[in-house]
Amino acid sequence: MQSPDSRSTKRCTVQVDRGLEDIVPGFLANRQKDLQTVRRALLEQDFETITLLAHRMKGDGGGYGFDRITEIGGDMELAASRHDCTAVERYTAELEEFLLGVTIVYV
Amino acid sequence: MPRRPRFAARKSTKPSAPSRPSISDRERLPDRHAPSRVVRSNVPFGQNAAALLERSQETIRKLAQSDALNSGNLPLAFQAITEACSRLLQVDRVSIWLFARDQTSLSLVDLFEPRQQRHSAGMVLRSTDYPIYFEALASEERAIAAHDAFTDPRTKEFAHTYLAPLKIGAMLDALIRQKGRVVGVLSAEHVGTTHRWAIYEEQLASSMATMATLAMEAAERREVEQALRVAKETAEVASRAKSEFLASMSHEIRTPMNAIIGMADLLWETSLTPEQRKYLRIFRRAGGTLLNLINDILDLSKVEAGHLELESIDFDLHDVVDKTMDILAMRANEKGLELACHVDSAVPRFLIGDPTRLTQILINLIGNALKFTDKGSVTVLVTNDPDAHSPGAIRFSVRDTGIGIPDDKLNAIFDSFTQAHPSTARLYGGTGLGLAISKHLAERMNGRIWAESSLGKGSVFHCSVRLQIQPHPSAQKPAAQIELSGVRALVVDDHPTNRLILRESLGAWGAEVAEASNGAAALEELRRAAELRTPYGLLLLDCRMPEMNGFQVVEKLKASSSTTGLTVIMLTSDHWADDIARTYDLGLGGYLVKPIRRADLIQTIGIAFARRQGTFPTGSVEPREPKPPLPTRGLRILLAEDSPDNQLLVRAYLKQTGHQLDVVDHGAIALEKFKNGRYDVILMDVQMPVMDGYSAARAIRKCEQDHDLLPTPIIALTALALKEEAAKIFEAGCTAHITKPVKKATLLEVLQAHKGRLT
Lengths: 107, 759
Prior knowledge:
- The complex is a heterodimer of chains A (107) and B (759).
- Chain A is mainly alpha-helical and 107 residues long.
- Chain A has a domain at 34-106.
- Chain A contains four helices and two strands.
- Chain A has helices at residues 24-43, 47-64, 67-81, 85-101; strands at 12-16, 102-106.
- In chain A, helix 1 (24-43) packs antiparallel against helix 2 (47-64), helix 1 packs antiparallel against helix 4 and helix 3 (67-81) packs antiparallel against helix 4.
- The model of chain A has no long low-confidence stretch (mean pLDDT 88).
- Chain B is 45% helix and 19% strand.
- In chain B, the strands form six sheets. In chain B, strands 2, 3, 4, 5, 6, 7 and 8 form a seven-stranded antiparallel sheet that branches.
- In chain B, helix 22 (723-731) links the parallel strand 26 and strand 27 (736-739).
- In chain B, helix 3 (49-65) runs antiparallel to helix 5 (74-89) and helix 5 (74-89) packs antiparallel against helix 8 (199-268).
- Chain B starts with a helix and ends with a helix.
- Classes of the chains: A mainly alpha (107), B alpha/beta (759).
- The A-B interface holds A 17, 19-20, 22-23, 26-27, 30, 55-56, 58-64, 67, 70, 74 and B 642-646, 648-649, 652-653, 655, 685, 687, 717, 719, 740-744.
């Protein structure tokens, strides 16, 4: 089991296929990197990069068991496509919050 | 009738050495006076007439029915006739003479002299020697009744050469006719006196002449029959020799052909350039076609040579039918045809016969139907033969909506190497041997094959066979069962046969079954049932229906939250891979690929209920029958995906599955990998840098077309949800799509389905 970050305010538990145990930490670490990349891209108004990352989150999250990441990715992709900085920031925050609060149970 | 004295004299000592009469012979004959007394007929009329008539009729009847007359043995028949005639007419000599083909001579074929009880033959008379007599034979309608042969103008030219030496006083010559022509003469002669021939005697002589005609016709008939028999036997010997030669040759050819094809298969597994692969594909295809042809010839020649032994073993008819449908399902799906099969519940299941050859017949009939049908359906009905009324007499009827067969070709199509349309072989391939073989096989099973057709509308091929029923079928495995009592099921399919199959099966397992033939009717029925608080628990829904397809029905149901408590099973045929993915994506109960097998239906319903309710329905569910052995290797899969996390994910999904995975970051590399490798399946992300999935799929399809390669399944991985985008995926050449995020179960199920279809 992977415990949530103590800073998290919203906690949730996600059941993940045990076969993915090796790659889930890497996946979540990459999302942490995405947070930084998206924030940097926001500063540079680089919506292309944000769209790409959000699209991948949408496509990948549910496969790992994180449907919430797929949802956030989908919303962020739409926001980026309309160059809506505020919304992108909001979804970035939602992603950060999810990453901090998620507890993973391998089944 | 003239007889030469020299002949008569010789006959007594050397009857088998007749000689021709000549002028000089005749000139040497002693000149005898004719008898001066003419007596009346020695057969009295009056009180004996009736008895005589009766005796005559009896003799003629016996003669007509005698073996001698009908056996075709002409000498024997003539002897019987002359003897009977001498008895009836009470004359001293009776003879039969036949004309030569040119009518210029008569040959004696039998002379009977009752006093000596002697038969003789062999003399020849020429028209040039007895012109008046020959002229009389040609012109007389009735018998020549010469009461006094010495004075009768028609016979007197025989006086010195024949009548006087033999003391013949009266001659009665009845004409022997055949097919309207005079072919000979039957002659009755009195010795020592003249004789006034009575009418009845003329008639008797004519009847005897008719007997001669019958004998000749019987002989001719026998000759023709003999010639026919000889010709038939010769043909059969030749045919058998041909069949044996073909059987032997086919076997001899097949052995090296197997090696050639086997080596080509091995070569196919190696690394090849696209050009080499193109040549090798043609090589393998041609090899396969040739092998099929040889196998067909081998079968046909075995049947014709009488070498084909049918087995007589216990078998399960359902297994035979299911196996056949499994083999042909892919072909139907590839052509987008509906293939359905219904085995009537009254048909005995556990039979004794040759299941392999029965399967061969069914594959041929259904395969033909699929071949000649471009649109619509092929339906197989298995019933007890309505014309036979005996247990084990089973009829298979294969109905298609294909091109049909002209009336005048309906019988010829069962001949070897014959197809209904001259262009058929070119358009559809095949040797035309399959139906001929099937016909022989059906006949060997005491049945037959026939067809009905309507040109342009379709055909029905019927095959009836007579099989034995196993006396103790209880020893067999029990039929698969599932208990569906209390389950309300709705079957939705535009194809009535599929509804019939599902209704019968579900009904037999206790479900309460209703039907709908389209999506709108199904939605209405579900709504009505919900209102009445009698909701359905099971929905079997055809994916492909006109106007509203199965997935649209599901979307509407989900939108109205009407899926609560409802287990949905999708029925898919063509585009099956895509349908399977969508079924899993939508979280539905399961799917069935048509044609629907009972065992699969039970299994799928069982699993779907278990998934929804956490338990199986009550009752026993037969374990899934062992699938045919899977190919020893897994699939070779190419994944084109730009997301490293998704690459990792798919790798993780496929770990320990036996599949081999190559991963590339975008479409351009995927295209290169495709050109230089060989893959069973390509998983293609749609949105990728450098070259997206659409362009890559299009480029791969073009490459396949340029190099005459069979299309590799391309499964698009897409987060897109709009229908227009789905259409774009198919337009680009993808065969199916899986919606991202890709779930493990969906991916594995789709890959497993592909693996099952690996050839």
